[in-house]
Design brief:
By secondary structure, the protein is α+β, with helices and mostly antiparallel strands. Strands 2-3-4-1-5-8-7-6 form an eight-stranded mixed sheet.
């Protein structure tokens, strides 16, 4: 089963926002990030990767680059290509795909689902998030 492993919060001040969540909940800073689309921090609670981001040049939500709040969520899937086909067959709009070599900077494939909600799918867990358990491990637990 696909697993939720990523939340992204849009903010105008990544440093102060990341500092707040680290102090408030003890989230660990995984790394500082800087890219063409956004800069900020990856935090983790040990299960989820929580991205605290200031988006720079691409308004993915249609709310303006000054929007703050929950931006998108991400789900790890076993087979990215199969998931893309399934999502598109359900009417989800794919609007951003990784480059051909699937570099780390382009980990996820972005979609718009019902009501325009943005979400990512990825074939591997985000930094700081828990790995997706294998079917073998799940069978052994039963």
């Amino acid at each position: 089963m696909p697993k939720l492993r990523h939340l992204a919060l849009a903010t105008q001040n990544p440093e102060a926002t990341a500092d707040f969540y680290k102090k408030a909940f003890g989230f660990k800073e995984i790394k500082k990030i800087s890219g063409e689309l956004a800069h900020g921090y990856f935090l983790s609670d040990g299960t989820l990767n929580i991205a605290i981001l200031k988006f720079l040049n691409h308004d993915q939500l249609g709310k303006g680059l000054d929007y703050v709040g929950l931006h998108h969520f991400g789900v790890v899937v076993e087979d990215v290509d199969e998931a893309i086909k399934k999502l598109e067959s359900l009417g989800a709009e794919c609007f951003m795909r990784p480059n051909q070599d699937r570099s780390v900077s382009a980990l996820e494939v972005k979609f718009r689902g019902p009501d325009g909600v943005v979400f990512d799918i990825a074939g591997e867990a985000w930094p700081g998030s828990a790995p997706v358990r294998s079917k073998v491990a799940e069978t052994e637990d039963q």
